[in-house]
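Work package 3, deliverable 3.1, input record:
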Amino acid sequence: MNRYTILKVFNRVFIYTAVIIAVVLSLAPILYLLITSFKPPELTFNLPPVWIFTPTLKNYADVIVGGNFFKYFMNSLVVALSTTLIALVLGAFAAYGFARFRFRGSFWLRMSVLIPQMLPPITIIVPLYVLFNGLKLTDSREALIISYLTFTIPLSIWMMVGFFQDIPEDLEESAMIDGCTRFQALIRVSLPLVAPGLAATAILGFLYCWNEFLYAVILTGRDARTLPVTITSFMTNKAILWGRIAASGSLVLIPVLIFALFAQRYLIRGLSKGAVKG
Amino acid sequence: MSTIEVATSRPQRTRRHWKHQLEPALYIAPAFLVLIVILIYPLGYSFWLSFHEWTLRGFVNGVPWVGLQNYISLVSNPDFINSLRLTFTFVICALAIEFALGMGLALLLNHNLKGKGIIRSMILLPMMCTNVVIGLTWRLLFNYEFGIINYYLSQLNLPRVEWLSVPSLAMTSVIIVDVWNTTSFVALMLLAGLQSLPDEPFEAARIDGASSWQTFTNLTLPLLRQSILVALLWRLIDTFRIFDVVYLLTAGGPARATETVSIYIYTHGFKSFNLGYASSASYAMILIMLVIAGFLARSIGRSSD
Amino acid sequence: MSKFRLLSVIVVVAMILTACAPAATPAAPAPAQPTTPPEPIQAAPTTAPAAPTSAPAQTAQTGGQLPEIVVACWSGPEHDNLVKLAAAYTEKTGNKVIVEEIARESYADKLTTTFIAGGSDYDVAYVSSDWPPAWIKANALQDLDQFINDPAVVDKDFDLKNYEPAIDSFKFDGKVYAFPSEGDTAWMWYRKDLLEAKGIKVPETWDEYLAAAKALNNPPEIYGAVIGAKPDEALWDFMFYLFSFGGDVLDKDFKPIINNEAGVAALTFYSDLLRKEKVVPPDVNTYGYNEILTALQEGKTALGIQWMAATQTLTDCTQSPKVCKDGQPLLGYTFVPDYKKPDGSVVEGTGGSSWGWVIPTGAKNPMAAYKFIEWLTGPEGGKQWALNGGIPSNQLVLTDPEVVEQIPQFKMLGEVMPIRHLVPPTTVTGEMVTAIDEAIVAAVTGTQDPKAALDECAAKMTDLLTQAGYIQ
């Protein structure tokens, strides 16, 4: 073995070790959560921590059965999907406008889109509630969708602008010379090319909505409640029901887990295709 | 151009020019219209409110105009300055660590590893967790008496650490949690950037015998500038606003050691229901963020030219 | 016009219309739709708790349809209790009662937002006595006098005196705004086995408490005592020390006296437990009700002051196995210690909380709401509430022999009522509590010494009270 091979092997070992450490650190708290969810609640605080025990499904049963867990799950899903879809469409078109056209004030307009993103929700939550109260939309999915659009649209715009900028204009131009309008060129030529970018944006937008808490807790009640709010209802005023929090937390994680398995491919491919450009 | 030519071409130019102005508007307008319609009342009202005194108890007496009084009280309020200082500390430390680790992680993942799909999805998990769950889980982990971190420390004969109950340490603990949560996002953005870099410069560098460090500093970093800046911009805005996780971990305590601006606004907005003051704090915060973001955005614009 | 332009215009207009139009079909059926009149009271209730037999049917209908009411309550035993009672009430009267559970963390925020916006989401809400004043100032609550003084509505056996003294914390400007429900206080909890093993008698004064704590203090296995100085919750623990040292928050003229001798003595004692004597776990400034409960449950502390509401959990061997032996609980409880002044005289006092049911201004069915809470806190509903584990504030219930037999705690509760102090309800109570919390945390973390912290707090309180018009 020459020096070069030894170095290469060492390099590989180092890389794999580092990756394993990264994975372990990333997963450890999540695994802790999962394990706690299968523990009988009395064992939560046991030290030394009990790793070998008879797993119980009681926590999950308490969470799912007899409550409206499925309804809240659907609420979260519908709100997140609807918001993502609307934001994607609106945001992609707006991003195209920014990417293709140079006009006065385009920089400032793009910056202004960041303002809703920068808003601490507290600022507008009371007026938002008043607004929805007036529209008789309190405790509704619509209220959440409308509120979530305020940060998913900016996200879409900012992410998609870079992707559109990377598609060379000639492709659209040749399509337009062939008789398409710009809009048709966009739909037929550019959109398929930025599809990975759309996927990446959709995934990030979905995540934001799925995990959002503050708007959900103030604007919804028993009808439109979403999952993050449900988790906090296990922090009762008499005890923190850690078993149920762990169980519901794990359940909220499952769709996200599935997402992650598919998403990572699209996310990385999507982001690298267009590169992460402003 | 002779005057005659100008005269004949003007009508066409005007129409095309007008169409040219209108076109981008048609693409951009829908998104903006939706945003404006949704936000005009809440934003307008809260902005208006920041110039008035609005407290729950004074509600029925009306909402008197106080001009810039709220903003002036803000600047002279040591608690607000404290929360600003804490927020900046938090943002700078967290982002520095996240980008260093994220860069390292991105470089690692850039290699052709076995099972890289699974590995990447697992590393992405922390960023996908609900904030509520993250806050509560880490609160359990950091628990002085019953948390397993302290337990294992004591097993190794190291002293137990008061993660969340000592003012000096509390901010560190919060930073740790945020780093855990979002490093993968940064790694993701940087990895994407790395994967789109062309191969030739790196080949050339290798042939020239450059060391990995030299390659990294002189080649990789400059080429990744765009990706880094965009990731930085996005993370900056999110980190500045952080609320859920900090609130669940420490509620701004102990003794205000982790009271970031968002928590400060929340305390004044909801606990005291002093909405005028809370609104002014929000807009002050937005102003600061806009300035910083503006600088970053300009840099992004410039480097793409 | 080119096709493209037409299309774009249509898209834009459609967007605006979608954004502006209210929801055509709500995702869920709208709440509070009037229900069709049910049949007269059914024969045998199936699994609902035993409906009272002798109660005359006091339905709230004005003839015809019976309205639905929505009750807001935070997560926890009160909510579970409420669900059972709501079912019983629906059985009895046909009025549908929907209970909405709201997470504890955001409970006050959500209620405040809803109330001041005049929202009609709720007809009744479960609130702490220090919240209403600000809401009343903002015209967000309805007074109950309109129903009490109306012979057509009020129950014929109704007597407001049964709610004394608890009702005083819900009277503002001479009007009643809530019916009191949970009237809580705290006990001193102690490990019978550990005290016996060392031959220490159950402490009756704070000096004895400290001595016992020091004797039993054996970190890190077990600490002598526990306190809870978490921001947001500190006062709810400290109040027992403050009041039993003879201190108080405000005097009769609404002037802050929290920084008087007694107050400073109390806070010094409280913070010294951590700083000087080190008989409490080192992370107590992250402790609230839940953490104190955990510490007691897990056997991490030998003594502690904890709310009465924890009694069921702490004395139940299936829930607290670590502090049980042979099926018997090892934890005992008794009155909070007294303070023996340097001159030998003994001061008594204790704290507490008072919770009640209010009707917001925006309630859709205030009269039905009124009848519900009248029943809920009355002799019938209150009795069931107590038997299910609640702590009613109605004298008739507290002296009911069946109730007293089942729940001996109530006798003790009756004894402390005269010396129980509450956080004074004013329109600035929320902010005052925050200021006091900060002072407590500063003292406990050592950032300020108790006297300085309390003086600063008193100054803030004076400002607030002056602004709110309580002090001229």
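The first strand of chain C starts at residue 68 and ends at 74.
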